[in-house]
């Protein structure tokens, strides 16, 4: 077998110990130009450092990736596997887009065979882009969760997923609604029991978003979260202005959209809120105090015209932030393409602030976001996100010469940050030479 463990992967290694911040704090990241990544037979990192310093006890079969960049597997903190069919659907903003394109497709996931087939295609698409962990939305159907988790488990991947909860018309159409709160609770309990902490899987309570859940359903979700404190919670928050206005019109006692979730007991350390574009400082303080995460989804926010996420404000408030592709509203499965758009969204948002306070997204901070930052947002950084000894060895091999323009830009780059920035802006799925899950090759370009 050509990917038998233990093994040592030789190449340029880059990983992060924490957020390098706006000034690329040199203590926050490690770069080994001729590096060695030693993986044990259990698929975990044994040692990472300079090739010349590799201790004898970690010597094993060598896989030679010299001239390529090895980084931890990308973490996509927000994506819908159920929308695999309808990415690139034209011309609508959030709520119309859901009714026109998303719901008719999600209806098909009541069929287990269909859900399994799409799960397989979806996971292939992720690994081909270097993504090894994701916060995934299925549909309202229990079988859509079974199908997805079964496929992810067979591939040994670390994944977060949970049945979508939705029961309030018109934002949950009748053909996609839970039959009642007790039934939705019962199904969720069964799924938690079946899948949570099975191998590398994490269950997430997943109310689609406040408009599509009844008050009783939101309260039930909060009760389950209290009962099972180590499961995750994922939902959408303040994605577009009309959506945010509709939430405030319905929940007249709530101070803000986030407060609706807070009152239901859904704002906790393992909660991840997608988008969070239209929030204020008080919301940011609350999210930071709770230890909750935000999934920043730039391609989706641009595609649906939802608005510009304030990345700098979220990070300076101390909120955990990861990147999400949010496909099918997002336009690419590639985290490199997502970083490219994140850079631009941040530029545009910062241009509205006084010059002295502006920030930009450096390549180092971008790669932090796509790896350890995502793991922190999903509260999985004990397991994944960097090459510390004991971490699960999910990693990606990136090619500096994937396209002619990238090759040229690479050749004339003056230093590593410039080189990495070229990859962040010009790279895409063509840059992914190989993707490894627990030390085993899950994707190879050739
Ligand atoms: Zn979404």
From TrEMBL:
Q: Which UniProt keywords apply?
A: Hydrolase, Metal-binding, Zinc
Q: Name one Pfam family in it.
A: Amidohydro_1
Name its GO BP terms in alphabetical order. Answer: guanine catabolic process
Q: Which reaction does it catalyse?
A: guanine + H2O + H(+) = xanthine + NH4(+)
Tell me its EC number(s), please.
Answer: 3.5.4.3
Q: What class of enzyme is it?
A: hydrolase
Q: In which pathway does it act?
A: Purine metabolism; guanine degradation; xanthine from guanine: step 1/1
Q: Name one GO molecular function term.
A: guanine deaminase activity
Which cofactor(s) are needed, names only?
A: Zn(2+)
Describe the location of the Amidohydrolase-related domain by residue ranges.
70-416
Coiled-coil segments: none
Cofactor comment text: Binds 1 zinc ion per subunit.
Q: What is one term from the GO cellular component aspect held by the record? A: cytosol
The function of this protein is: Catalyzes the hydrolytic deamination of guanine, producing xanthine and ammonia.
Provide the family line.
Answer: Belongs to the metallo-dependent hydrolases superfamily. ATZ/TRZ family.
Q: What is this protein called?
A: Guanine deaminase
Organism field:
Nocardia tenerifensis
């Amino acid at each position: 077998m050509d990917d038998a463990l233990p093994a040592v992967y030789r190449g340029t290694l880059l990983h992060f110990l924490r957020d390098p911040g706006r000034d690329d704090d040199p203590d926050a990241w490690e770069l080994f130009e001729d590096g060695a990544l030693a993986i044990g037979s259990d698929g975990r990192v044994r040692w990472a450092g300079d090739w010349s310093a590799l201790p004898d006890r970690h010597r094993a079969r060598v896989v030679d990736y010299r001239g390529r960049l090895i980084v931890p597997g990308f973490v996509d903190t927000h994506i819908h596997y159920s929308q695999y069919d309808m990415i690139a659907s034209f011309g609508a903003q959030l709520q119309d887009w859901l009714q026109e394109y998303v719901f008719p497709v999600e209806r098909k996931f009541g069929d287990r065979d269909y859900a399994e087939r799409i799960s397989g295609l979806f996971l292939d698409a992720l690994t081909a882009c270097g993504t090894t962990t994701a916060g995934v939305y299925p549909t309202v159907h229990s079988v859509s969760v079974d199908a997805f988790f079964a496929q992810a488990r067979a591939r040994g991947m670390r994944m977060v997923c949970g049945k979508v909860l939705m029961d309030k018309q018109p934002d949950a159409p009748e053909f996609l609604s839970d039959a009642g709160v007790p039934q939705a609770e019962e199904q969720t309990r069964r799924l938690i029991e079946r899948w949570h902490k099975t191998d590398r899987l994490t269950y997430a309570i997943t109310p689609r978003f406040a408009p599509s859940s009844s008050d009783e359903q939101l309260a039930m979700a909060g009760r389950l979260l209290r009962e099972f404190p180590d499961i995750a919670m994922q939902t959408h928050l303040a994605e577009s202005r009309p959506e945010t206005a509709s939430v405030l019109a319905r929940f007249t006692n709530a101070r803000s959209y986030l407060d609706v979730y807070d009152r239901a007991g859904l704002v906790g350390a393992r909660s991840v809120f997608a988008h969070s574009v239209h929030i204020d400082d008080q919301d940011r303080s609350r999210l930071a105090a709770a230890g909750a995460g935000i999934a920043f989804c730039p391609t989706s926010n641009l595609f649906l015209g939802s608005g510009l996420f304030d990345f700098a404000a979220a990070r300076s408030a101390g909120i955990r932030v990861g990147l999400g592709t949010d496909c099918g509203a997002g336009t690419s499965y590639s985290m490199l393409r997502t970083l490219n758009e994140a850079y631009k969204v941040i530029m545009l948002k910062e241009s509205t602030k006084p010059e002295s306070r502006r920030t930009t997204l450096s390549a180092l901070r971008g790669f932090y976001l796509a790896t350890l930052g995502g793991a922190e947002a999903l509260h999985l950084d004990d397991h994944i996100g960097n090459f510390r000894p004991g971490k699960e060895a999910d990693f990606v091999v990136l090619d500096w010469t994937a396209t002619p323009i990238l090759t040229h830009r690479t050749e004339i780059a003056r230093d590593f940050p410039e080189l990495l920035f070229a990859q962040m802006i010009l790279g895409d799925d063509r840059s992914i030479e190989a993707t490894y899950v627990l030390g085993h090759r899950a994707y190879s370009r050739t």
